[in-house]
Amino acid sequence: MYKSVVYKGEELLGEVEIYAQEQQQEEEENKNKRKRVIDEIVKGIRISHFSQASERCPPLAVLHTITSIGVCFKMEESTASSSTKISSQQESPLRLLHSSCIQENKTAVMHLGGEELHLVAMPSRSNERKHPCFWGFNVASGLYDSCLVMLNLRCLGIVFDLDETLIVANTMRSFEDKIEALQKKISTEVDQQRILAIISEIKRYQDDKIILKQYVENDQVIENGKIRDTSVLVRLRPAWEDLRSYLTARGRKRFEVYVCTMAERDYALEMWRLLDPESNLINSNELLDRIVCVSSGSRKSLFNVFQDGICHPKMALVIDDRMNVWDEKDQSRVHVVPAFAPYYAPQAEANNAVPILCVARNVACNVRGGFFKEFDEGLLQKIPEVAYEDDTSNIPSPPDVSNYLVSE
């Protein structure tokens, strides 16, 4: 047990007792994070502001869903501080804080560097415990507010790869390089059917190269169209419009959309403009934050995609043609689609009974349905029964996108 004091701004609210909480089989990194939090709060807890009030989701349900280390500590007003207020017949400032947080479905927040400490007012099972009590959670700065909005709106995150997932793009140079490589391949190939397939693939590249050459020479597509390496011919994957319309059906966002690609930023922004011309999926003023470019050779990571505390990885689905480019801890949230290959296998998309991106749409729909079914019928039903004295391990596990990601 540790002792500390709580301030709201410069106003002293009272003395408190802190009880650190430990999880079974906890990773060393989480133990160290918990210890750093305790080391800071024993110096004093300074509440800077309150979280936004929640209309639908209790703060405990939100924090239980997005925390990486569980309940960091339990906190209650010290008996000495409480008895002094009672003897003077004054309402304890901490009790007023406690009542306000419960009535308005909000938390008291303290800044901890790039993170936030959230105090959740808790009911007590003990008739003897007359003083206010709280659970403390530590999360990334801004994460609570953004995830609260998403959970209230029944919205999840979705992260798209670009090349060979949603599009295939070529410049004049890349067309020439691919045609040359295939022509060399023919010279070493002995199987006649394979030779015919390569010739057909070369023909498809040459046809699109002719189209692009016309654009380059007539400067009809983009500024500086005569620069051969920046003029691009792009093929959008079939059924993209179906997936796009599902994400924002009837003007209501079912998913917050992000992009994570190994392409260069200028290219990625231009490709996304073609995919989302009316900025329905990503607002134009959010583009720079939501399109994340990873250097070639590096692993993609949901932590980096959401580094500004805008979503939690447990609430995000990834659509990519490769799983091994993602951090291992994120791979369970990746729905892998076959690589889009309109030149190598032009009939592959058409031969599917359900288009690849319609399958992805169905997967996203099932993931969202499963996530919020468990959130509503499991977690939200149990939260009102949880009290300060309870063991945190008895709370149902929070939903995680990876639990519902079953490939069709």
From TrEMBL:
Entry-linked InterPro entries: Fcp1 (IPR039189), FCP1_dom (IPR004274), HAD-like_sf (IPR036412), HAD_sf (IPR023214)
- PROSITE patterns per UniProt: FCP1
Q: Does the keyword Nucleus apply?
A: yes
Task: Write the record's keywords in alphabetical order, separated by commas.
Answer: Hydrolase, Nucleus
Please report a single Pfam family linked to this protein.
Answer: NIF
Q: Which reactions is this enzyme annotated as catalysing?
A: O-phospho-L-seryl-[protein] + H2O = L-seryl-[protein] + phosphate; O-phospho-L-threonyl-[protein] + H2O = L-threonyl-[protein] + phosphate
The UniProt entry's GO CC annotations, sorted and at most eight, read: nucleus
UniProt superkingdom: Eukaryota
> What is the first-listed, main subcellular location in coarse terms?
nucleus
| EC code(s) of this entry | 3.1.3.16
Supply the source organism for this entry: Populus deltoides (Eastern poplar)
- UniProt xrefs under Gene3D superfamilies: HAD superfamily/HAD-like (3.40.50.1000)
Q: What is this protein called?
A: protein-serine/threonine phosphatase
Q: Name one GO molecular function term.
A: RNA polymerase II CTD heptapeptide repeat phosphatase activity
* Taxonomic lineage of the native organism: Eukaryota, Viridiplantae, Streptophyta, Embryophyta, Tracheophyta
